[in-house]
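Forum: Protein Structure Q&A
Topic: Joint prediction for protein chains with partners

I've read a bunch of threads here and the consensus seems to be that you should model interacting components together rather than docking separate models afterwards. I'd like to see that in practice. Below is the full input, 753 residues plus whatever partners are listed. Could one of the regulars post the assembled result?
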Amino acid sequence: MSTTIKIELRQQDLKKIHEICDSFNNEPLELINILHKTQEHFGYLPAEIQDAVADKLNISTAQVYGVVTFYSFFTMTPKGKHPISICMGTACYVRGAERILDEFKKELGLQVGQTTPDGKFSLSSLRCVGACGLAPVVIVGNKTYGRVAPDDVKAILKEYE
Amino acid sequence: MHLLVCGGTGCRASESNLILESLKRELEEKGLSSEVQVIMTGCFGFCEKGPVVKVMPDNTFYVHVKPEDAGIIVAEHVIKGRPVQRLLYVDPKSKEQVPDSKHMGFYRKQIRIALRNCGFINPENIDEYIARDGYASLGKCISELTPADVIDIIKKSGLRGRGGAGFPTGLKWEIASKNKADQKYVVCNADEGDPGAFMDRSVLEGDPHSVLEAMTICGYAIGASKGLIYIRAEYPLAIHRLKIALKQSKEYGLLGKNIFGTDFNFDIELRYGAGAFVCGEETALISSMEGRRGEPTNKPPFPAEKGFFGKPSNVNNVETFANIPVIISKGWEWFSSIGTEKSKGTKVFALAGKINNVGLIEVPMGTTLREIIFEIGGGIKNGKKFKAVQTGGPSGGCLTEKHLDTPIDFDNLVAAGSMMGSGGMIVMDEDDCMVSIAKFFLAFTVEESCGKCAPCRVGNKRLLELLTHITKGNGTMADIDRLKNMCNVIKDTSLCGLGQTSPNPVLSTINNFMDEYVAHVTEKRCPAGSCRELMKYSIIVDKCVGCTACARGCPVNAISGERKGPHFIDQEKCIKCGACFEKCKFGAVLIK
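Posted by a regular:
Agreed with the consensus. Here's the joint model:
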């Protein structure tokens, strides 16, 4: 588990969370959809937000936490301004994705799941984006880079400086 | 005339949407917008050569198209009727240009049933689906056939579930239809989590209506009025197109109340996954749809008895559904005439890895691996030697040269120690270490294990540790036996399909490549030269010019030597990072 960030929810944040929960009739069965909407708005799901969701739905925070940590799509740490994802699907793996990942780790000084202190880049690996013809694939923000070689990593990062 | 631009994920990643815009702009400038239509379709399948543009009706197939090529396509092909030679596909064997897709080796052996509309229609326009007989099968079912007739047709067709295990679809429907309840559900499993498989997404992106039609047919057959599509949140384009398709079919009265003027009602809604491989297992999928952690439960009770909200639910995979409308329209006799004795119809495979033609293919069951890899796939990349192909993803195993002529179907793959799975096919060449591949899949399983049962949670973790141990050169022969024993225990005692199949990649690589395991543990050597810790770097004295680039690049100062004189690597200090190999411009660094 990475470092816990303490945040204070503002009145308007709380209002937003309540709005989202209300739009799903405060139905605990809709928890995953509610968390999707919440993460879409806040960018991540820190403990305080999970507390607020649990309160509103009248379920335990443990239940919310259980779901948040079960699914890889949900994150408790904020993503960087330019989130970097390296595809680790099998097709990318056999075409050298691991070396690309190593290069990003080295260049950014990050491990998978971490964000740079200035909040600029975050590093994650994902399972198959389905662009196997372009393997190995790297995604930065909304842009996809195909047939990436370890030597390309520096140039890719430079685009975002 | 129609210009079809591939809008599959691979081609879109190479900016095919810009090609679409440029083509439209060029046509507008030439005043041809009303006569030539530009359409963004679903995946053509030939991802290796993307972005792809196809000109209809003559089937001209342009590869590696760039947005700036739009001008020449319009000026030459559209206006003058001359295909643009430099954008045509070149056959790698004959070195000749191939004018249309029908003559391309990649397409020649394919029969497209599930993918019939992918790459032909605009998936965001229901009229195009209807123009290709869409929703006619639904109409036939509701107005001419009884639910029992429909189930009978599906049973006789021999269709088996395309999601992995190959359970007979008709039988599944029959069980669900016999369970009485006030509410039943039809569930479409679109939680494609197998790394390297993307057929379900391609169907949803390229032909969403075929899935909606099939689910409605299923609803009619089993007596359900509600359908749910459980789809990964990671598939935004597929979600977008499904939403459009749902809206259109409701407007046309093909979903909702009183479909085709009968008293049959059926509605479909989307439920989102959030990234968990285990949710492909149907009981876990149902837990997840109910807003909980996606943990599987014991079967029985099967979802057909107690599923979503405790009601009978029929769960089928996307590709399975995509076959249904065709079986109804062309008849079970036709469908069952394709394929092998026990596996009927076709199967879609995602062909990837070290192969020339990466892409999505659909072939009759019973096609051999040799045909798929060497004819459709165009052989191994860079002229290397074929080593193995992994089917079934993390639940499957690898097939080797001796399996090349085995007709592929559900049962033959299981007999060969692998499985069909969802249809991922990753081709590997001589540079791939099979111990590392097994380790790769185990790392996946360990991360994706839901943690509910100990054999999967603990056992797979131990397997991964042992494999890591071996790839680092610390393993012993006893470790290989230990691996085998543990694999068998995990298979026998895990709760769900994920754990029961997770040791397959280990067992099948041990069975087929025992010599590689032995080389790792006895000689501390990786025959494929891929395990970093087992590599030995040395400098070929004759080739070294003494430029000192390697010595300067070495992070641990393990390289010594005079300027303009030969250099040497101190094996004690070397951390095997490979920096010297990358820095040397003279090919003097040798890896063994």
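Residues 11-70 of chain A form one domain.
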